[in-house]
Amino acid sequence: FPAMALVVSGGHTELILVSEIGKYKIVARTIDDALGEALDKAARMLGLGYPGGAELEKAARSGNSQAYSLPLPMLGRENQNEFSYSGLKTALFRLVASEGQAFLSQKQVCDLAACFQDRAFSHLVRVTIKTLSKYNSPLRPPLKLRGGSEEVISDLLVGGGVAANSELRKRLSGLSERVYFPAKGLYGDNAAMIGIAAGFKAQRGEFVKNVDSVDRLPRWKIDDKIV
Q: Of these four, 5, 97, 99, 125, which has the most CB atoms within 10 Å of its CB?
């Protein structure tokens, strides 16, 4: 530590600065759809099955990511600490409507899936790089990004269900040798995530003194403010 955590799931798309276990600050987040939500909605527009993200990934493998012109979200504004997928989703909806979903060939579906996934992931990587570039310091071994830039953040930790996507893993892994993913099968395991966090706290001797005082907050956020 410090490290940067990238959470990509159906409900979250966030970059979180992890100073130490238990000390977190959100430094970038989506202003509309989460990445996983956007992928699911795109799959639905293309008539693909469920789970949408996995079906979209499968279709995209056979598609041409340059076959259609879809916008790259927030092009030129990647330094605003924001992810956004609503515009890309709307662009796909209009394109599918103009083609007529019922008349799309299998090739068209695969091409559209590949185009949408390409723009969505390109946007994610661009914002991630821009956010990392804001942390310059000689205190830690830097995360070396392609292109020669060096950042204070030594490790990029990636989690969430969308991190299971092989194309996204490939793109993020290309940033550095110090990008880490969960073991296969643990991307969406909330119990494992909670257990690991509890394990670190136990190591530090942080225990609840009064169990009756503990409440459940299912939608508890790390931080309501972007720093």
A: 5
Q: Are 104 and 77 in contact (CB under 8 A)?
A: no
Q: What are phi and psi of 208, to 5 degrees?
A: -75, 125
Tokens encoding 105: 């060939």
The span from the CA of 45 to the CA of 154, in Å, is 39
Give the C-alpha separation, 208 to 63, whole Å. Answer: 52
- pLDDT tens for 7-26 read 999 888 999 998 888 888 89
- Which residue from 92, 37, 36, 44 is spatially nearest to 68, judged by alpha carbons? 92
Residue-level pLDDT at 140 = 45
pTM for the whole structure:
0.85
3-class DSSP state for residue 18?
A: strand
